[in-house]
C-alpha cells in the first residue's frame, strides 16, 4: 500500500514539475509575456479556431490587448514568439541567415516536403530561386502575357454561357491549367489522371488541425500530396527515359539541371519544388481574384474607376480588339493600387515563420535560440497608425506609395530575401483577368461571397455570380 502511495506521489510530483516547466520555459534573459497553453497542445486549438472577421484574427488581437505587441505562445508543441511589432518583424526578415532562418512546423513540412524551397537555406535556396526566375522573371512574364490574356478571355466567354459560375473554384481551375501547362506541359483534357483534384484535396486540409487520422482534413491533405507527388514522379521518370527533342517547359529545364555533372539538384528537391510552385501559383491567386471581384461588387465607385482605366487603354489603340501589350500592362496604375489593396485586406498568408539561430536581445526581451518567431502580416496591414480606416477598402491610399517590394508596413508577398518570386506572376494574372472582365462583362451576385479564416482565407459557400456580355463598345471610341 505504501509502495503504491509513494509511486503515485512521485508520479504526481513529476507531472506537476513537467506542467510547471512547460508553462515557465527556461530562458537566459526575459521572455515576452504570454501563455504556453496546455501541455503538448499549447494554444493550437485557439489558433485554428474559425472566425469570420476581416480584422486582425481574434487569437492575435486578444493577446496583443493582454500582453502587448510581442508575446509568447505554443503552437503544435513548439514554443513561439509572436510579433505584431513592425520593427521586430522587419528585423526578423532582414536578419535571415544570420540571426534567423526560414522555419515552419513539422506538420507543414510533412505537407510541402522536407526539401521544399521554404525549408532550404543559403546557397541552395538562392540556386532554386534563380531557377524559378527563369520562368517568372521579367523576360518570362513578357512572353507569357499573350497566353495569360487568351486564357482569361476563353474562360470568361465559357462562364458567360452558364447560368452562374463559382468564382473561387473556376479561377483556380483557370490558373492551375495555365501554370501546369507552363511548368510541366500538363493538359487536363489529355491526361488520364486529374492532377488538380489531388491539389484540391490537399488544399482542403492545408490549414487544419494536424491530426493524421483517416477521415480528417489533415489526413486527406497528406493523401492529396501523396497522389500529386506520385503523378509528378512518374512524369519525371518518363521524361528522363524519353527526353523531348524540343525542351519547352520548366520541367525540361529542371531535368537538364539534374543531369548536369556535379549538380546539387536532386530528384527529391526538384519534385518538392514543382509541387510548391503548382500549389502557390494558383491557390493564392484564385483567392485574391475572388476577393477582388467581391470588393468590386461592393464598391461601384472603385469598379467605375477601374473600368475607366481599362477602357482608356482600348480607346488609345488603333484596333480595340488587338491583344494587350507589355506597355499597356505596365500603364495600369490604378489596377496595381487595387491589387495592393486587395492583398492588404486579403491577408492570404496569416503567418510567416522563422527560427532563431542564436539568443537574440530585442528591447527588454530575449528570443531564445531554437524558438520559432511568427510574424503576423494582418497586424501590420491593419495597423491604424499606418493605414487610416484600415478595414475600409481604398485603393487610392496607394497613390503616394511604392509597394512593389516588401516593406516594414506591407508584407503580403513576404519579406527580406524570401520575398515571393511569384509576386509579379500573380499581379500579371490578376491585372490581365481584370482587364478582360471589366471591359467585356458585367456581373451580378447570385449567392455566397462570405469569408471564413481558419486562420487562412476561405470561401465556405463559394462566390457565385452570373456574367453578362457587354455588347457595345461605343464607350471605347
Give short descriptive properties of this protein:
single chain, 477 residues, alpha+beta, 5-stranded mixed sheet, 3-stranded antiparallel sheet, 12 strands, 51% helix, 11% strand
Overall geometry comes to globular
Largest sheet: 5 strands, mixed
Question: Strand share of the residues?
Answer: 5-15%
SS-based structural class? alpha+beta
Helix count, DSSP H or I runs of 4 or more residues: 17
User: Approximately how much helix is present in the residues?
Assistant: 40-55%
Distance between the termini: 98 Å
Evaluate the radius of gyration. 24 Å
Number of strands: 12
Rounded mean pLDDT is: 84
Low-confidence spans: pLDDT under 50, at least 5 residues? Answer: none
Physical arrangement of strands within the biggest beta sheet: 1-2-8-5-3
The helix-strand sequence is HHHEEHEHHHEHHHHHHHHEEEEHHEEEE
Amino acid at each position: 500500500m505504501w509502495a503504491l502511495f509513494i509511486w503515485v506521489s512521485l508520479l504526481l510530483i513529476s507531472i506537476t514539475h513537467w506542467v510547471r516547466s512547460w508553462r515557465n520555459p527556461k530562458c537566459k534573459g526575459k521572455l515576452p509575456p504570454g501563455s504556453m497553453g496546455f501541455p503538448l497542445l499549447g494554444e493550437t486549438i485557439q489558433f485554428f479556431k474559425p472566425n469570420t472577421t476581416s480584422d486582425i484574427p481574434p487569437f492575435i488581437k486578444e493577446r496583443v490587448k493582454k500582453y502587448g505587441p510581442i508575446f509568447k505562445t505554443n503552437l503544435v508543441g513548439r514554443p513561439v514568439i509572436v510579433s505584431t511589432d513592425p520593427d521586430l518583424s522587419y528585423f526578423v526578415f532582414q536578419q535571415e541567415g544570420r540571426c534567423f532562418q526560414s522555419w515552419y512546423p513539422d506538420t507543414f513540412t510533412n505537407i510541402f516536403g522536407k526539401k521544399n524551397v521554404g525549408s532550404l537555406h543559403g546557397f541552395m535556396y538562392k540556386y532554386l530561386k534563380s531557377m524559378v526566375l527563369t520562368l517568372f522573371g521579367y523576360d518570362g512574364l513578357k512572353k507569357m502575357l499573350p497566353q495569360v490574356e487568351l486564357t482569361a478571355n476563353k474562360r470568361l466567354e465559357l462562364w458567360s454561357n452558364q447560368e452562374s459560375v463559382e468564382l473561387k473554384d473556376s479561377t483556380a481551375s483557370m490558373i492551375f491549367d495555365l501554370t501546369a501547362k507552363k511548368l510541366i506541359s500538363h493538359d487536363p483534357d489529355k491526361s488520364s489522371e486529374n492532377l488538380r483534384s489531388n491539389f484540391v484535396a490537399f488544399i482542403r486540409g492545408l490549414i487544419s488541425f494536424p491530426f493524421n487520422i483517416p477521415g480528417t482534413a489533415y489526413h486527406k491533405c497528406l493523401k492529396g500530396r501523396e497522389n500529386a507527388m506520385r503523378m509528378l514522379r512518374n512524369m519525371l521518370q518518363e521524361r528522363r527515359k524519353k527526353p523531348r527533342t524540343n525542351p519547352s517547359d520548366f520541367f525540361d529545364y529542371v531535368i537538364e539541371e539534374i543531369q548536369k555533372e556535379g549538380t546539387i539538384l536532386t530528384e527529391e528537391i526538384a519534385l518538392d519544388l514543382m509541387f510548391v510552385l503548382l500549389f502557390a501559383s494558383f491557390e493564392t491567386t484564385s483567392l485574391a481574384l475572388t476577393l477582388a471581384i467581391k470588393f468590386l461588387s461592393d464598391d461601384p465607385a472603385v469598379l467605375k474607376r477601374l473600368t475607366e482605366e481599362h477602357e482608356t487603354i482600348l480607346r488609345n489603340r488603333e484596333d480595340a480588339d488587338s491583344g494587350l501589350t507589355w506597355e499597356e500592362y505596365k500603364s495600369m496604375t490604378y489596377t496595381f493600387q487595387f491589387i495592393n489593396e486587395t492583398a492588404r485586406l486579403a491577408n492570404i498568408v496569416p503567418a510567416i515563420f522563422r527560427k532563431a539561430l542564436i539568443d537574440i536581445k530585442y528591447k527588454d526581451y530575449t528570443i531564445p535560440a531554437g524558438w520559432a518567431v511568427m510574424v503576423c502580416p494582418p497586424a501590420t496591414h491593419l495597423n491604424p497608425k499606418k493605414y487610416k480606416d484600415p478595414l475600409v477598402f481604398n485603393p487610392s491610399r496607394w497613390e503616394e506609395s511604392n509597394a512593389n517590394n516588401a516593406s516594414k508596413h506591407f508584407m503580403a508577398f513576404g519579406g527580406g530575401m524570401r520575398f515571393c518570386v511569384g509576386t509579379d506572376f500573380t499581379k500579371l494574372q490578376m491585372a490581365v483577368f481584370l482587364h478582360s472582365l471589366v471591359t467585356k462583362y458585367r456581373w451580378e451576385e447570385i449567392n455566397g461571397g462570405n469569408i471564413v479564416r481558419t486562420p487562412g482565407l476561405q470561401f465556405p459557400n463559394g462566390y457565385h455570380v452570373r456574367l453578362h456580355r457587354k455588347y457595345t463598345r461605343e464607350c471605347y471610341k
